[in-house]
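Async update (no meeting this week)

Hi team, since we skipped the sync, here's where things stand on the single-chain job. The sequence we agreed to prioritize is pasted below, unchanged from the tracker. I ran it this morning and attached the output directly underneath so nobody has to dig for it. Comments welcome in thread, and please keep replies under the output.
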Amino acid sequence: MPAMSASGPLETAPPLGAHRGWLLTLGILEIIAGGVAIAIPVIASLAAVAVFGAALIIAAISQLVHAFQLRARRRSALYVFSGLLYAVAGVLVIAYPIGGALTLAVWIAVLLIVSGGLRAVFATAVRPIPGWGWLFAAGIAGIVLGVMLLVGWPVTALWGIGVLLGINLIFTGAMNCSLALSSKARTTPTA
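Output:
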């Protein structure tokens, strides 16, 4: 029988079943990749920039394909222009990875500062709710990290992206391992 809440029965997520092993393997690989990225952050930063450049080129191709599928000339021209901008940006990022890393580091720093500020403001708005302090602390940490990236720029650009990528991979891997292991515990028959 499902657990009850004030609004009715709580739905539980279905067990992962056979996919549990794949999720655990993925989590372990992400943790290892995160450790490698933190150990060699400059190479990880350049790899992240190359992936970013490739993503821009893929986005450019999809924009251009979409542009030629449209019937309206005005909308089509906007998609062609947008696709060409994506293509130029992608080629420049791949051709000049150091410049791409420098630019990407500034964007990440600004993103951290803005999202950190928004989290801090949101946390103060919901202050009576339990856990608001953690949200506020996360917001302040984002602001501090973004400022550190900007203050240390351009040196931080060469290692900062790799370290952030590594931390993200480790946390994502830990989450995936936790999901896989908790699914196994729920699907184990009880005596």
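Quick observations from my side:
The first strand starts at residue 4 and ends at 5.
The beta strands are 4-5, 8-9.
Reply here if anything looks off.
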